[in-house]
Design a protein that fits this description.
heterotrimer; A alpha+beta (389); B alpha+beta (208); C mainly alpha (517); B: 208 residues; alpha+beta; 3 helices; C: 517 residues; 14 helices; globular
Chain lengths: 389, 208, 517
């Protein structure tokens, strides 16, 4: 295709101009540029991302041409018209014709630029005839995905350990761009993303999909993507949303449709299994082990790995009234959120009963905490509290 | 007052500055609301739709129903961060003809141990469809008190304007539920005056 | 008739002389520049490699916020006000500023505003952490308790700016020497006149925005809270209605400085004086109608995005005119390369690069990828640092001999220029790559593929930071022991009323108005 060839030539020229070798384009994740070869915008894997890339390169080259002309004149003048070459300066200081020219010509260039930009923007806004609708909700500091009409929803959060962030463990290849549960979409289908937020403004950005949209609490935004190639595409939150802003990555797994359908069915089956397991009684040790993991995943970013909190911003849990007091109050604040501090979300809808039970048990017994009563909480207690409170 | 030209300039400029402050504080927010109302900016829907409004727009009493077209309307429910209620649409989506009124409901349950007041905030995508979605009855027009443990079906009656651009075939109506228990009491009085009495509401067509 | 300055601290506390107040503004802004620069060093040190090494993410956010606020409101804006105080009366043949006592007040409330702001760093909950753009609800419902100090700080800083602007406009409109028509004024006075009008128009809007925040936080209103019928996006509209003119407030006086320096060292009059005035006015007017190009991903109707894209593209036209005019001024001149000229030329090149990336950012579909990435950070530092800060540095080197009657050390000046120039580009050019490759701004930590360019950027930042200490040393040693000069013109090609005065400029000047040809 002509435009593809043009793109190749332009991008090759671009990297050569910058003095670096081009990186070969292959499929999968392996060819992702990093280090010194990381220079330009991704072409991405959707029609929209391609048209954005083309626009980007077009305006880039227009700027390069204007820049080369302008600076050539300037550098020529800096060399040829230096005083040390023994010149006497001219005295001209206006020329209506020239001034008209350099007002009108740039204006015309801009008009030319505006046409493809307008077309690209219209394309971006065309969310009609979508095959799949996924609602994305931004939280401090994770994402929730809900497959509308399928009854599948889950929370996706960073799986990078705090130890590796703070240099106590090695960093994995996908440091800060790995999640516990990626969002799965089928290739070749138009996926519409409905984006909103629970607390502050976030922005869902996956460069290779050519998608970035703000998630605004109380409001819903939409955008779309049709991914052409299967693969794993990684993105990030792009709007400052508090201290975990850099720690809420996005991973999109684009798979063939059959694989997608199988995945969807498995999600539903798994939800049924989890529902069954609520009635199982767990030992104190089991609760503490899974509680520590769940606590570090969902609570430690504010309350601290050692339950120390952050003075003035987030309360400590070590020796706290909530952790040591009546278990009903403890359940209440975790499940229903805090009435005084908006930062303490209602976790009842975010975490499973098993996780809540484990977290509460952990909080009541870790870091030297000794509760007045109710050392352990079972998943079924959480369920009962949710239903019958 | 000021004969000194310097002082005159300074006083004018000072008034200008104060004027801009008042403009930002008292004019911009309502202006923005009006602008949103007219253009549907930010996917905001307008308040209760009344017969008079329709008559003004169409010049006729009868609202045309476009039986040729079918528009899919999706419902989405979100809880704001610290809102613990259970909140979901009873139907995920409906298909309607433009002009045809449709009744749906959302389910809300206050599962906590305290009485609470909620406010639902509507939002529509695509943004261009917002001004063509008319609600004659909506739980979002009022705040919603629920006692501890209480549940309710919250009703919504709407229709899609027949003028809806042809390019739009799916509309998503989203509600985000906020906990306003703390502010709720003062706002209640104010909002009940705006409450739609239902007299002006057009007759309901058959529920799909 | 003329008396000298008072003795001791009283000279500064009760200063009404425009030169003294200008000096205080300049020193204050330089102190703020070093403080904001120190915060930048903390940011770059943390970003030197992936992982959290030095500080925690919540403190990182306080650093980015304070860096932005202090640089914009504490360093750049007061620096140009200081320059205006020193130069405008001398350039238009006025004895002093029109409202000297208000001048004193507008300076002296500044230290209190910034003390209030900086003191939050030591309070429980920490300093403001919501970015210098302080988007609601992160800055309202979810803000640390110190947000109220931030709001009052902004009010004080805003009041200072407004008073400064009233003073500048009153001076220019009323105190010009006979014969000094508006279209004969040096371009620096013109650009400040336009800037001052912009300030009076938009600083109150900023004050309105923070007042609405204050009421939302403390008095239960719902301007920006969706729960009560407000809209967080309204905050962004109000903020950028202030914010876009604000970025031109920062750069327009720089245009005036460059338009003074390039003709001097080209020994040739400024090309297209009147088109410069018209272009600057056009930029100022357009700045009011393009604000939402900062919000292309927020969810606007298609028509809105198209409008803001077209209007923004339009700004490239007058901006281009200015750059072409500067280059034509140099063309067929007799150019020498003293330190101010080096900075001015670097300004033209780097500001133009910032303009190009601005043009790219204006293309709404492409902005989907650029928005809130390091590409934006690179763009505005090319305009703010290579634009405003370079022009300020050029201005200090250019007028310092006139102010204190001593010549700076040219070799040291040139050394500082080259270190700044290299340091600046090493810092910010790689940030284009980082942004294009997908690194968002305000990230306390990043994934591994971004490591190399971040290291380069951090090294550049330390070099650039060090070059500012050299600048400080050069200025102090000039004032204390620079080679004395009493040549009124200082520079061979300098034109304008300030160069007709004796060097160093006496405490009182133009007590009788000069003749303007």
């Amino acid at each position: 295709m002509a435009s593809r060839a043009k793109r190749l030539i332009l991008s090759t020229l671009g990297t050569v101009l910058l003095g670096f070798a081009t990186q070969a384009s292959a499929s999968g994740e392996a060819e992702r540029p990093d280090g010194w070869s990381l220079l330009n915008m991704t072409e991405g894997v959707t029609g929209v991302s391609h048209s954005i890339y083309d626009l980007h390169m077009l305006i880039f080259w227009i700027c390069v041409v204007i820049g080369v002309i302008t600076f050539s004149v300037m550098f020529y003048s800096m060399y040829a018209h230096r005083k040390s070459s023994g010149r006497t300066p001219s005295n001209f200081h206006e020329s209506t014709a020239v001034e008209m020219a350099w007002t009108i010509i740039p204006a015309l260039i801009l008009v030319v630029m505006a046409f493809p930009a307008t077309k690209g923007l219209k394309d971006l806004y065309d969310t009609s005839e979508a095959d799949i609708d996924i609602k994305i909700t931004g939280y401090q500091w994770k994402w929730q995905y809900e497959y509308l009409g399928e009854g599948v929803e889950f929370i996706s959060q960073s799986s990078t350990s705090l130890a590796s962030i703070y240099g106590k463990a090695p960093k994995s290849e996908f440091y800060l761009e790995e999640v516990d549960k990626p969002v799965v979409i089928p290739v070749g289908k138009k996926v519409r993303f409905l984006i909103t937020a629970k607390d502050v403004i976030h922005a869902w950005w996956v460069p290779q999909l050519g998608v970035k949209k703000d998630a605004v609490p109380g409001f819903i935004n939409e955008t779309w993507a049709r991914v052409d190639e299967p693969g794993i595409y990684r993105g990030r939150c792009a709007e400052l949303c508090g201290k975990g802003h850099a720690f809420m990555p996005i991973v999109v797994n684009a798979v063939p449709e059959e694989e997608y359908l199988a995945w969807l069915a498995a999600q539903k089956a798994q939800a049924a299994v989890e529902k069954e397991a609520i009635n199982n009684e767990l030992t104190f040790e089991e609760l503490m082990t899974s509680g520590e993991a769940a606590y570090n995943r969902s609570c430690a970013s504010c309350h601290g790995v050692a339950g120390e909190g952050i003075p003035g911003a987030f309360p400590a849990l070590k020796d706290s009234v909530i952790a040591l007091g009546p278990v009903a109050d403890h359940l209440d604040v975790v499940i229903n959120g805090s009435q005084t501090n908006a930062a303490m979300q209602a976790f009842g809808g975010q975490l499973s009963e098993a996780d809540i039970a484990a977290i509460i048990t952990y909080e009541r017994n870790a870091w030297g905490n000794v509760p007045e009563a109710d050392k352990t909480v079972q998943p079924v207690d959480v369920l009962k509290f949710k239903q019958g409170q | 007052m000021a004969t000194n030209p310097v002082r005159k300039t300074a006083v004018w400029l000072l008034f200008g500055g104060i004027g801009m402050f008042c403009f930002a504080l008292f004019v911009l927010p309502p202006l923005y609301d009006v602008f949103c109302e007219i253009t549907g900016l930010g996917g905001k829907t307008s308040g209760p739709y009344t017969q008079q409004q329709g008559a003004k727009q169409n010049g006729a009493q009868q609202r045309p129903v476009d039986l040729e077209r079918i528009v899919k309307v999706q419902f989405v429910a979100t809880n704001n961060g610290a809102m613990p209620w259970e909140f979901k649409p009873l139907v995920q989506e409906v298909k309607v003809h433009p002009g045809q009124a449709q009744k749906v409901a959302f389910y809300a349950r206050n599962a906590t141990r305290r009485d609470m007041v909620a406010q639902a905030i509507p939002s529509v995508t695509p943004i261009s469809a917002a001004k063509f979605l008319h609600k004659t009855e909506c739980f979002c027009f009022n705040n919603q008190p629920l006692k501890a443990g209480e549940a309710a079906d919250l009703p919504l009656v709407f229709f899609i304007d027949a003028e809806l651009p042809r390019t739009v075939n799916t509309i998503t109506l989203s509600y985000t539920l906020f906990d306003i228990t703390k502010q709720g009491t003062e706002q209640k009085a104010e909002q009940s005056t705006e409450k739609n009495t239902g007299q002006d509401a057009p007759p309901l067509a058959a529920v799909l | 008739m003329a008396h000298g300055p008072a003795k001791g601290i009283g000279r500064w506390l009760f200063a009404t002389n425009h030169k003294d107040i200008g000096t205080m503004y300049l020193w204050f802004s330089f102190a703020m520049f070093l403080l904001g620069g120190f915060f930048a060093m903390v940011i770059r040190a943390e970003l030197f490699e992936p992982g959290m090494q030095i500080i925690k993410p919540e403190f990182f956010n306080q650093m980015t916020t304070m860096h932005g606020l202090i640089m914009v409101f504490g360093a750049i804006m007061p620096a140009f006000v200081g320059l205006a105080n020193w130069l405008i009366p001398m350039q238009i043949g006025a004895p002093d500023m029109a409202l000297p006592r208000m001048n004193n007040l507008s300076f002296w409330i500044l230290p209190f505003g910034f003390a209030l702001l900086a003191s939050t760093l030591f309070m429980e909950g920490g300093a403001p952490n919501f970015g210098w753009t302080f988007y609601a609800p992160l800055s309202t419902t979810y803000a640390p308790p110190t947000v109220n100090f931030f709001i009052f700080g902004i009010h004080i800083i805003g009041a200072s700016s407004i008073m400064g602007s009233i003073n500048i406009i009153s001076t220019i409109l009323n105190l010009r020497a006979p014969g000094m028509t508006l279209m004969k004024m040096p371009l620096f006075a013109w650009t400040w006149l336009i800037t001052a009008f912009l300030l009076i128009a938009v600083m109150p809007v900023l004050a309105g925005a923070v007042t609405m925040m204050l009421m939302d936080i403390n008095f239960g209103t719902s301007f920006f809270n969706a729960a009560g019928g407000g809209d967080p996006v309204l905050f962004q509209h109000v903020f950028w209605f202030f914010g876009h003119p604000e970025v031109y407030i920062i750069i327009i006086p720089a245009f005036g400085v460059i338009s003074a320096i390039i003709p001097t060292f080209s020994r040739k009059p400024l090309f297209g004086y009147s088109s410069m005035v018209y272009a600057t006015s056009a930029i100022a007017i357009l700045s009011f109608v393009v604000w939402a190009h900062h919000m292309f991903t927020v969810g606007m109707p298609l028509a809105g995005e198209l409008y803001f894209m077209y209007a923004t593209l339009l700004i490239a036209v007058p901006t281009g005119v200015k750059v072409f005019n500067w280059i034509s001024t140099m063309f067929r001149g007799a150019i020498t390369y003293e330190t101010p000229m080096l900075f001015a030329i670097a300004f033209v090149i780097l500001f133009t690069l910032g303009g190009f990336t601005g043009l790219m950012l204006a293309i709404a579909p492409a902005d989907i990828q650029y928005h809130d990435s390091y590409f934006v950070v690179a763009h505005f530092h090319y305009v703010m640092v290579a634009g405003a800060v370079f022009s300020m540095t050029a201005a200090v080197y250019y007028w310092l001999p006139k102010w204190c009657g001593r010549m700076y050390n040219e070799a040291l000046g040139k050394t500082q220029f080259w270190i700044s120039f290299i340091g600046f580009n090493v810092t910010f050019f790689p940030q284009h790559f980082l942004g294009l490759a997908g690194m968002p701004r305000r990230y306390a930590d990043y994934s591994l593929q971004f490591t190399d360019w971040n290291m380069v950027s951090s090294i550049g930042a330390f070099i650039y930071g060090a070059s500012q200490l050299l600048f400080l040393y050069n200025v102090i040693s000039t004032i204390r022991s620079g080679e004395k000069t009493d040549d009124p013109k200082v520079w061979e090609g300098a034109e304008g009323l300030e160069w007709t005065l004796p060097t160093p400029a006496p405490f009182h000047t133009f007590s009788t108005p000069p003749d303007v040809k």
